[in-house]
Each structure stands twice: as structure tokens, then as C-alpha cells.
Amino acid sequence: MDFQKLLNKFGIVENPISFRKIEKGHINLTYIAELSNSSVIIQSINRSVFKDYKAVMHNIELTEQIFKKNHLSNVTVPFYFHTPDGHNYYKENDDIFRIYRFIPSIECKCSPYHTGKAYGSFIKVIEDGKNKKTEYAVSLPDFHNFSAYFKKLTILDKESKLKKIDKSILIRMSALENTLNSVFDCYLTKRIVHNDAKSDNIIAGNPVCIIDLDTVMNGYAAIDYGDMVRSVTSSDFSLNTIKQITEGFADGLNGLLTEEEVVSLYFGILYVTGELAVRYLSDYIGNINYFKDKTPSMCLSRANELFNQLNTFTKYQDDITAIIYKAFKKK
After folding, report:
1. Most buried of 9, 92, 96, 117 (most Cβ within 10 A)?
2. What pLDDT digit, counting tens, does each position of 251-300 carry?
3. Which pLDDT tens digit goes with each residue over 205-243?
4. 325-330: long-range contacts (C-beta < 8 A, 24 or more apart)?
5. How far apart are CA 76 and CA 167, in angstroms?
6. Rounded CA gap, 119 and 226, in Å?
7. pTM over 0.85
8. What is the DSSP letter of 172?
9. How far is CA 76 from CA 30, 204, 208, 264, in A?
């Protein structure tokens, strides 16, 4: 990759001092380029995952426009450089590149409360800032479709000669599918959400910056909530941590959610945890390599960790539900 040429395509004429690949992240290739007066992030979009890159970058552009008009929020997003023809990406052969200013962190990571508030505010800002002409595209069809992922896993299990999934897991995921389908039905409100609301996708600054906007599109607020709870408590389960996340999320949303959406929040935790476990199992048994930095054995280990998390979330259902209702009752 000719980094100097790429920078020039986005109107950046400063001479790069150094380039470094950032290993963190499962999907896209990411580099940091140190310039004379600043640094920029350069990403190559994974075309095997994001097949419709134009839809991805269109949604990012819409999100930027909304946040540019909002000057009072506690949260912001990256603003991408544009090429002379007005695109926020550059295509060279089959590679798609994009660039934004490096955003330094003032802390190692956000507190659970501020993580929750950031993602809640993110949804609220977009809800308040969009209009009838704001048309978000479906950039990743079936991205959060538990039934589609589970069906794929059962097919892979039947086709596999050497690896098999424990039948008890398949039975349990089938039961979870039935539960989720009853909660996340066609009547539950959908909004523009992040859809990948991990704690790692927040840069702790003033304001807080939410990154990795590739998955921003129509979805359920419960999915963002569930991903926050799952990711923040992955190594250390704590009801107090969940309480802080929930209170922050409620404060950020500021009364936006319907009663049905509030009820769905707990099930959002089960949704994303079970879904991710199923996806890791599919990578393990089918050698799909969606998680490009994971070997099959690592995928199996990660799936087992997620099933353990699912057990914990199920065990503490009453406590978590009480936390949710108390936090959102104030709004």
C-alpha cells in the first residue's frame, strides 16, 4: 500500500513520519499514520464482510451530518476526510480506504455509567436530528438476525463430518430463538442504533467519541444495551456495573424508549450473547474465518465463555430486570 499516495487522494499533503498497523479489531485492516502536526487513522474495509461498502459509507455520512448539527451533546463521532469528488472513501482496484483524524483518549476507558450514557445519547441525538429525508440503508442484511445465524449453525453441524455441536446446546439455542422471536416481533419499535455497542468502540474524551460506525442502521435499542452489558461484564460480572450502565443508558436516552422497548432490554442481553456464541461456533465448525484473528480452537473457547455468560445473565434475570425498571421509571 502506498500510504503517501493514499493520503494525497484525501487532500492530505503532509509528509508521513511513520505508519503502524493497529492489531486491535476483528474485521477491518486499520493503520495509524503519524504526520508532522497530527495523526490519522487509515482503514481498509473488509469487503468479504461489508459487501455493500457504499451503503456503509452512506450511513456514516448521514450520522456525521446529524452530529455536526448537534453542539450540546456529550457524545460525538469521527468525521471522515473526503476526496475531491466528494466521497468519504477511495476505491483502488478492489480495496476501499477511508481516513479520519486520530482521536486521543484522555482515559484508558469510560466508566460503565458513561459507556451507557454515551450509547443512549448516540441513539437520542440521531432520533432528534433525523428527518423524513434521512434514509439509512441496510448495510449488513441479517446482521442481528438470531434465527438466520442459528439456522446456519444447524446446517453446518449437519454437513460437518469431523466436528459436531453438543445437542444440548442446539436445543438450548432453539428455545432461546423462540423466546427472542416473541419479544422482538414486528411491533417492537426500531430506531437507528449503533448495532455494535461494545465498550471497545468508545474513546474516552471530552466529549466521548463513538467509533466503528460501519453497523449503524435500523435496529433495536435493546441490542445496543445488551452488547454494552455483555462486553463490560465479560471478565467480571457485577450487578453494580450493570446498574451503572443501565442508569447511564436511561439518562442518555432521556425518556425516548416506549414501555415495550424497556421490557425488551433484558432480552437484548440474551440476544447478543447467544448470537455471538452461535457465530463463534459457526466459525469453529465451518472454518468460516469471520473472526479473522481467531483459530477454530479459539472460536470454540470463546463460544464457551459466552455460554457461561449466558448462564449468569439467566440466573440473575430478576435482579437485572429490577435494575432496568428502576432506572427507566425515573424517565
Report:
1. 117
2. 999 999 999 999 999 999 999 999 999 999 999 998 776 777 788 899 99
3. 888 999 999 999 999 999 999 999 999 999 899 999 999
4. 325/262, 327/243, 327/246, 327/247, 327/249, 327/250, 328/246, 328/250, 328/257, 328/262, 328/265, 330/250
5. 45
6. 11
7. yes
8. H
9. 20, 11, 6, 26
